[in-house]
Amino acid sequence: NMLRGMTGFAQASCRFKDAQLNLEIRSLNHRYIECLVYCPDGFGLAEDLIKGLLKDRIKRGRLSATLSVSNLHPKVAVDYELAANYVKTLKQLNQRLKLENNISLSQVISLEGVLRTEKPKLTAEFIRTLKSLANKAVSKLIAIRKQEGDAVTRDLLRCINIIKSEAEKISVSIRELSQKKKAVLSEDEYGVFLKSTDINEELSRLSYHTKNFLAVIKKESAAGKELDFIGQEIQREANTISAKAQSAQVSSSVVKIKSAIDQIREQVQNVE
To answer: What is the pLDDT of residues 46-69, one digit of tens each?
Structure first.
């Protein structure tokens, strides 16, 4: 089967030169697709890349991805020009305020921008590394969502089988009821009875919808919304059968069918 669930967590890491990259993706149920991507400052390009990749490969769910980049052997860079500017300005301030205070090294290096650790540059090579990391994490997530999809599929098939077997029971009890009525009613009365209780059309539509449901489960596309729609259609036929049928047996089968539909409609909220 091809159904995928919507919840899951996946994580992947890799090295890039002197940096360690780590990407975590969480996924929750959602009616549509929503992507939130968190990256360190200065990695806006990476944010767009990850978001694009998620939307390409996943069709439904609330996704949040977090990229962390840590330098294993950070190189420290000094902005000499900025430091010289700070010192010059502080000396002028010192003169103007007629202070005795001298400027120390520890004060200068604590000023913003004087010292910085170098971040990986967003080169084409870095982007390639990031792309393959993101693909790896998304593939892991899809595998987890597929496991969930398998469990949901088993449950959906169980529900559809209940609907099919109860529809078969309804068909049999309608035939039996019809034979009993034929024996005791006049021809006119029997004609009226048949007209008001004829549910063959509903039963054949019910059969069509269950077949269609099974076909959609096997499709490779995101099918949650479509399955929910077919569930509504099955519910409509069950309601009509319930209103027309004049038998306790049929009513009991309809109750079981409706309970199976409720479970189906609840479960399809969990699949892409």
So the answer is: 999 999 999 999 999 999 999 999
Residue type, 251: S
Q: Which token pair is 179? A: 């034979």
Closest CA to 129 of 116, 44, 137: 137
Sign of CA dihedral 187, 190, 196, 198: negative
CA distance 137 to 183: 69
Q: Three-state DSSP class for 60? A: coil
Angle at 263 between CA 234 and CA 157, to 5 degrees: 75
pTM for this one? 0.73
Average pLDDT, the chain: 91
Tokens matching residue 64: 């949040």
Spans in the chain with pLDDT lower than 70: 1, 72, 220
